[in-house]
Write a structure and sequence with these properties.
Blueprint: E1 3-5, E2 12-14, H1 15-25, E3 31-35, E4 40-46, E5 53-57, H2 66-70, H3 72-90
Antiparallel strand pairs: 1-2, 3-4, 4-5
Length: 114
């Protein structure tokens, strides 16, 4: 099982547990934005290690700005999923993961070796 350290505190757990922890404890790290001119909504989640700010449109692309407040947890779930992917690809050491643990053993046909 892959264990990792939360990028915002010292909590350690598996990938799914860390994802849940981020939503439950660090929800404020995900910022939501409404661009009135473009009539689009976005979420923004910064990487605490390199400063990359991942910004992505929120769907549905409606003008109801209450949507951002009402679905903050669901939006954060997607945002933290993107952050975890980034962390495992770009900052495995910082979250306590050995990069070798991330490698998948595939056979010549691209199928998972057991």
């Amino acid at each position: 099982m892959l264990n990792m350290k939360c990028p915002y505190c010292d909590q350690v757990g598996g990938l799914m547990a860390t994802h849940r922890h981020l939503i439950d404890v660090h929800l404020e790290m995900v910022e939501t934005q409404y661009d009135e001119e473009a009539a689009k909504m976005y979420y923004l989640v910064p990487c605490p290690f390199c400063g990359l700010k991942y910004r992505h449109p929120v769907k549905p692309r409606r003008r109801d700005t209450h949507f951002l407040e009402e679905f903050k947890s669901e939006i954060a779930m997607v945002a933290f999923d993107q952050l975890l992917y980034h962390l495992l690809q770009q900052h495995p050491v910082e979250v306590g993961v050995d990069a070798a643990d991330l490698e998948i053993d595939l056979d010549e046909d691209g199928l998972l070796n057991n």
